[in-house]
Amino acid sequence: MDFTNNLIQWYLREKRDLPWRKTPHPYPVWLSEIMLQQTRVAQGLPYFLRFTEVFPTVLDLASADEEQVLKLWQGLGYYSRARNLHATAKHVAFDLNGKFPDNYKDLLKLKGVGEYTAAAIASIAYGEAVPVVDGNVYRVLSRYFDVETDIASFSAKKEFFELAASLLPKDKASEFNQAMMEFGALQCVPKNPNCQSCVFNGSCLALKHNKVDSLPVKLKKTKVTSRYFNYLIIKDSNGNSLIQKRTGKGIWQNLYEFPMLETAQEDDFDSVCQSVEKFSSDFKPTDIKPLHHNPIVHKLSHQHLHIHFWEVKTEQKIEGALTIDEIKKYPFPIAIHNFMEEHWAEV
C-alpha cells in the first residue's frame, strides 16, 4: 500500500520530538491524549511536563487532591477532562493495581476515554491494530481519497473508521496511527496547506480535482449562545474578598469564582448597581465601580461569555472573606485567573 508506506516513512523523517513518544508506557500516552483533546500540542506540552513532574506515576495523580489537579489544569479548558482524568487515575491505581487495561475494549470502560483515545492508547502502548479517527484523520482521508461524506453525519465515523482500518498495517499500528495524527497536524492542515511540498501531491485526489479547500465536508454548525457575567470583587474592611465554588454541572464545575450576577444582556452601570444592592443582603456596599470599560469576551465552543468585573467596597468585615494570597491558591477558570493576574499584578 503506497499510501501507508509513504505516510509512515514521512512520519519517521518528520515527527516531532515529544516526551510521550519516548516510552510506550500507557500512563504518559493516556495523559497526553486526554490533554490534547481540543488542544494544540504547543499549548498542551507545558501542562504535560508540569503534570509529569508533579505526578510522575498514576498513583501520584490518584493520591492528589482534586483542587491541586484542577489548579495545574487551569488554562487548558474543558475541565471535565481534568475531573475524569483524576477519577480514572484513582480507578487504575486503586482498583486495577496501577495497571492500565491492555486492550481497546477494556480501555473504553475508563471514564473520559472514548473511541479515539482508547484506539490511541491501545495501538501506541500495546500495538493493537485499531485505527484512530479524529479531525486530523477525517481531513487527511477525505482529501486524499476525495470522500465527500459530511463528517458531522451519523454514518461518517463508521465509514472513516473502516477506511482507516483497511490502510492500517497490523504490525505497525503505533507508527501508522501516530503518522496519521502528525500528518494532519503538520502537513495536511485545515487552512492553506502547502500541497506542493506534500509527499502525496502526485496522488491526492483533492489536489488533483482542486477540492483541498472544500474537504472535509462539515455541514452541521455549532450553535453559539451569548451569556453575560458580572463578577463582584467584594472588598471588606480588611481588604479581603469572597470567592465561591461552582458546584453545579457545567464546564467550570468545582472551579472557583467571585460572586456572580448573570444578566440577560450587557447591563449599564445603574442596573448593575441596583442588582448588587439586592444581592448584598449580608453587607452594605459603600462604593461600586467597574474595573474595566469593555467586556472581556471569553469564547467557548458553544458559548461566548461577556464578562465584567466590578469592585464592591464595604466598611464591614465579611465572614469567610480571604486575602489575595489565599485566593490565588485556588483553581479558577482561565478568564478569571488572567484578570486576577493583571489586576493584582503588583500585590
Features:
347 residues, alpha+beta, five-stranded mixed beta sheet
Give a description of the structure.
Keywords: 4Fe-4S, DNA damage, DNA repair, Glycosidase, Hydrolase, Iron, Iron-sulfur, Metal-binding. GO terms for molecular function: 4 iron, 4 sulfur cluster binding; 8-oxo-7,8-dihydroguanine DNA N-glycosylase activity; adenine/guanine mispair binding; metal ion binding; oxidized purine DNA binding; purine-specific mismatch base pair DNA N-glycosylase activity. It comes from Flavobacterium enshiense DK69. The protein is α+β, with helices and mostly antiparallel strands and 347 residues long. It folds into two domains: 2-214, Endonuclease III, domain 1, CATH 1.10.340; 225-343, Nucleoside Triphosphate Pyrophosphohydrolase. It is built from 15 helices and seven strands. The protein has helices spanning 2-14, 26-35, 41-54, 58-62, 66-73, 80-95, 104-107, 115-126, 135-145, 156-167, 173-186, 205-208, 269-279, 324-327, 334-343, and strands at residues 225-235, 244-245, 256-257, 260-263, 285-290, 296-299, 303-314. The strands form two sheets. Strands 1, 4, 5, 6 and 7 form a five-stranded mixed beta sheet that branches. It has a two-stranded antiparallel sheet with strand order 2-3. The chain starts with a helix and ends with a helix. The mean pLDDT is 93.
